[in-house]
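User
Class, as today's exercise, I want you to study this protein, comparing sequence with structure tokens, and judge whether sequence predicts the tokens.
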Amino acid sequence: MLSFDTIQTPPNPSVVNTHRILVVEDEDVIRDMIVLALEDEGYEITAVNDGRSALNLLQQEDKNSQATETEFDLLVLDLMLPQVNGLDICRLLRYQGNIIPILILSAKASETDRVLGLEVGADDYLTKPFSMRELVARCRALIRRQNLTNSSSSSVKQFRDITLYTQECRVTVGEQEISLSPKEYRLLELFMSYPRRVWSRDQLIEQIWGPDFLGDTKTVDVHIRWLREKLEKDPSQPEYLITVRGFGYRFG
């Protein structure tokens, strides 16, 4: 199910990598090869063979860690797993607000399968059979991207031609400044902080309006519509604020 090509240059034993990766794969040979390849890169690996064990580890991590500190830096996740499948794990983690980068591994290679995996919360999707070289490269890229997000203390968030100046509470589209209400601004700031993450209406209510909000979740839809009218060239065909049917909204 995978190519066993190895990195041509041997790993440098002096390289120490502090990042931790959780590998969830039920096929022993594939799991062992993934662990070996990632350990050769200096990563610290925890490997399990079923979805329930993975959730137990990740949910225990949430109980013990601060919101900005996670035990694992990356989740490498097979889809076809015993007990709890990979798609359900993705859905649950994102619903709970866990932002760990997720790389899906799957023999399902159709466009529909890839889109579904990304829409339920995965950050990348690698089809079997795959090259170990490519797997390592994708893991490295996801961790690097997450590090840039976590370490960024910049007062400016940029996505395509949208720029958000956090210290000034100001937003521009291209060179034109747009006027946003406080709730619209906070929604946009949240979306731009986690591009491509899918947020349910309940999650957005809790993040922006607070847990004591007694209104209807349709409030979210109204504010999304107002934001689209201000950000999108064609609000009926949005490029930024995307509806993920059955789940909620994502940015980008």
Observations:
- Residues 6-16, 64-70 have pLDDT under 50 and may be disordered.
- Residues 20-151 form a domain with the Rossmann fold fold (CATH 3.40.50.2300).
